[in-house]
Specification:
The protein contains six helices and seven strands; from the N terminus they run H-E-H-E-H-E-H-E-H-E-H-E-E. It has 159 residues and is α/β, with parallel strands linked by helices.
């Protein structure tokens, strides 16, 4: 009697070899930064070594944006990036959140113009959900940290 074992959906396609996985994840970190790392770098004393770019519309910007961010909607990048950004300073793009690829499109447009660029994972949604301060057309704002996205009363997530 032959017994066959069903492979579960997770392992139906085998994991990559460790060296391939390391290359993939290293490459991912070359292209992405997360909200808490961006916030920590901006909160530290001195120049963080990058500029944050909000690629959303003016209405979205007015609703809330990261303090100190440059506002440059994706459609305007080809015409205005050279005037607003220093090519020698890396740019970290963001848009609304994980359900929006506006930051990806902005990063592509900037890279095609010769800028060094990373995309901030989570976008403005996770910036606000993790309890970081933001600015609106009415002034400063801050929400309580969402315990589903960040530990309550902790310096960082320990990632």
């Amino acid at each position: 009697m032959t017994t066959t074992t069903a492979v579960n959906p997770v392992l139906r396609i085998a994991p990559a070899a460790p060296a391939e996985a390391a290359a993939y994840f290293r490459a991912s970190l070359v292209f992405h930064a997360d909200v808490s790392d961006v916030a920590a770098a901006l909160a530290a004393d001195g120049d963080p070594g990058f500029v944050v770019l909000d690629s959303r519309s003016t209405a979205s910007w007015d609703q809330g944006h990261i303090p100190g961010a440059v506002h440059l909607p994706t459609a305007l990048i080809p015409a205005q990036a050279e005037q607003l950004l220093d090519r020698s300073v890396p740019v970290v793009t963001y848009c609304w959140g994980p359900g929006c690829n506006g930051a990806t499109r902005a990063a592509l447009a900037l890279a095609e113009l010769g800028f060094q660029v990373k995309e901030m994972l989570g976008g403005f949604e996770y910036w606000a959900r993790e309890g970081f301060a933001y600015e609106t057309w009415e002034g400063a704002g801050r929400r309580a940290a969402d315990p589903l996205t960040v530990p309550v009363d902790a310096e960082d997530c320990g990632c």
